[in-house]
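Data availability (excerpt). All sequences and predicted token strings are deposited with the supplementary files. A representative entry, phosphoenolpyruvate--protein phosphotransferase, is shown inline so that the format can be inspected without opening the archive.
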Amino acid sequence: AVSAAGREVKPQTYTSDGTRITILANINLLSDLKQARDVKCEGIGLYRTEFPFIIRSDFPSEQEQYITYKRLIDGVGDKPVIFRTLDVGGDKVLSYYHDAKEMNPAIGLRSIRFSLQNIEVFEDQIKAILRAGSNGDIGIMFPMISSLEEFETARAIVEECKEQLKKRGEEHISNPKIGLMLELPSLVEIIDDVVKESDFISIGTNDFIQFMVGVDRTNEKVSDFYIPHHPAVMRSLKRIVETADKHGKPVSMCGSMAGDKAFLPFLLGIGMRTLSISPSYIPEAQSVIEKIDISRAQKLADDICRTPRIAEIAKLLKIDHTPDS
Ligand code: PEP
Ligand code: MG
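Structure token line:
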């Protein structure tokens, strides 16, 4: 396959020393699927299911969602698809629901909190996913999980939806993998327990960095303070990946750091082996990964995780962006 950038894309990705790296695609709408297929992704690591909701003028029914999800799964074939449940609120507003403005929408009634307060909307979505996935390789993941209880509550609703479908005699997947997005720093201190509970985790660095450094990811006035290479971010990522590995649980990254060429040596160095990337960045990421040597990447990652200063980490990563102060 030849990408839009004219680069030959291989169906599988290996580092220079032969370490296998899995590249999945992030998609927002069914229409993104063609590009994901063109760049030969190995599956969908993040389907942002709120986008089909955002472009409408009312909540889609279970059946309407089922049709969309089934078309996606059929289009992907036998490759895996991870459905991220509705992540509305914050900067992703539903015109037909959100009227009262929140003072701090990014930490307001959004994401899994919205779903757990709007159980019918949540259940319709879960049932649609379970039905569409009846013969597929699918995972369900909940965004913005902040505690074990929240994860367990959301997972119990999947069980409840399975019961409802059983009663209706509707075909559905009986054992989807159920995971969570690691986007809140609150999970880092309890990461052992989180990883034990969850079938898989996916790190959403866009939100994770926002909350770790306390900077609104959408506010240009403070964009200089949004520092992905902050030592607290770097060390947390290492800890998360090591803990997942220790428990033999799949860990991936689906935030935009996963497709950022400056961070790929670090990510591979801390043991990250699965990346979910926006399709347009996949060809370049693949060619960068092919030049990475894992033992050198490990040394770089160790050096970075020993460094307490932002500017020194920037130097190690060979990136320009350093804060003014
Ligand atoms: C993230 O927060 O990194 C993420 C992948 O989710 P979104 O960008 O949709 O918030
Ligand atoms: Mg997010």
